[in-house]
Amino acid sequence: MIMEATLQNSTDFILLGLITHPEFPGLIFAVVFSIFLVSVTANVVMILLIHVDSRLNTPMYFLLSQLSIMDTVYICITVPKMLQDLLSKEKIISFFGCTLQIFLYLTLIGGEFFLLGLMAYDRYVAVCKPLRYPLLMNRRICLFMVVGSWVGGSLDGFMLTPFTMSFPYCGFREINHFFCEIPAVLKLSCVDTSLYETLMYACCVLMLLIPISVISVSYTRILLTVHHMNSAEGRRKALATCSSHIMVVSIFYGAAFYTNVLPHSYHTPEKDKIVSAFYTILTPMLNPLIYSLRNKDVATALRKVLSRCPSSQKTRVVDLSRKY
Questions:
Q1: Between 6 and 245, residue with greater pLDDT
Q2: Mean pLDDT score, 51-57
Q3: pLDDT over threshold 90, residue 75
Q4: How many CB atoms lie within 10 A of CB 173?
Q5: Residue closest to 105 by CA, chosen among 37, 165, 167
């Protein structure tokens, strides 16, 4: 009773988790931690490879490195807290912590929306206008694209976060989720939030429509260009350069479409948590794996780096044997 009264008078929230009462929290912890470790490692390796290997110093890989940075930060703002809660009885998150989660989550989701759209434009220029590619995708334009993606995403965070956290929240403040996602938080509000939810829905749809339009137009032009190619080898190479991006877009926007576009009648807390787990935990792991497994340049760069490690050790051993 004392605990309940304390929670009612506190500004903190309680995260009920992905599964409210898990029978095997240790097993869930091991699975989620493994995915988290693979995701962070894969994205960090991708960033380092792009930075180290000169053959990967191209606009496409520069944009890909930014996607890996976003994915790394993205999974780090939700999963560590989720892992902590799996091993703790008190699954409390402070008001500031919840606010920070919402802001960073919105910023990174919005940033990835725009970045994936701009990556589609990059593929359009590479396939349809190869001779003008160095001019249309020079370093200044690439930097502008990246800054625009981060700024565009942060605008979403700056707009929605203050309004969301300004509502009065009452009761036991138990969020039926594993992180502070806006729809789950708004369910705790003491006042009617339907108007705000409608405006937020319109904002999210607009955020989706802009990059989806760029992606649709870009790939329509790419398919038309590929269709008119005389060389079968040329068509294969052109499609190969786009296949990884298409897979990432399909996975990411599929989950985003469910979350932001489908009406509330299709949503349940259980479905929302599963979809959120998919694009907050699995997607950051799948993105670098898709690009590395389906991309010869990345695979070659990784083999090159790995081959240097034993050779450098052998060289040191030979030098030491000669010395002594």
A1: 245
A2: 83
A3: yes
A4: 19
A5: 165
C-alpha 85: how far from chain center? 22
Tens of pLDDT, residue by residue over 165-180, are 999 988 778 999 899 9
Predicted TM-score (pTM) of the model is 0.86
User: Hey, CA dihedral for 197, 198, 202, 205, is it positive or negative?
Assistant: positive
For range 64-90, the mean pLDDT: 90
Residue 171 region, left (φ>0) first, then alpha (ψ -120 to 50), else beta? left
Residue 317, pLDDT above cutoff 50 = no
Bin 17: left if φ > 0, else alpha if -120 < ψ < 50, else beta. Answer: left
- HEC profile of the chain: CHHHHHHHHCCCEEECCCCCCCCCHHHHHHHHHHHHHHHHHHHHHHHHHHHHCHHHCCHHHHHHHHHHHHHHHHHHCCHHHHHHHHCCCCCEECHHHHHHHHHHHHHHHHHHHHHHHHHHHHHHHHHHCHHHHHHHCCHHHHHHHHHHHHHHHHHHHHHHHHHHHHCCECCCCEECCCCCCHHHHHCCECCCCHHHHHHHHHHHHHHHHHHHHHHHHHHHHHHHHHHCCCCHHHHHHHHHHHHHHHHHHHHHHHHHHHHHCCCHHHCCHHHHHHHHHHHHHHHHHHHHHHHHHCCHHHHHHHHHHHHHHHHHHHHHHHHHHHHC
Q: Give the tens place of pLDDT for each residue, 115-154.
A: 999 999 999 998 889 899 999 999 999 999 999 999 999 9
Q: With 90 as the cut, is the pLDDT of residue 53 above it?
A: no
Environment class of 108 (CB within 10 Å of its CB; exposed 0-12, middle 13-18, buried 19+)? buried
Tell me the β-bridge partners of 15: 175
Q: Sorting pLDDT into bands at 50, 70 and 90, what band is 299?
A: confident
Could you tell me the CA-to-CA distances from 158 to 73, 106, 148, 152 in Å, in that order? Answer: 18, 9, 15, 10
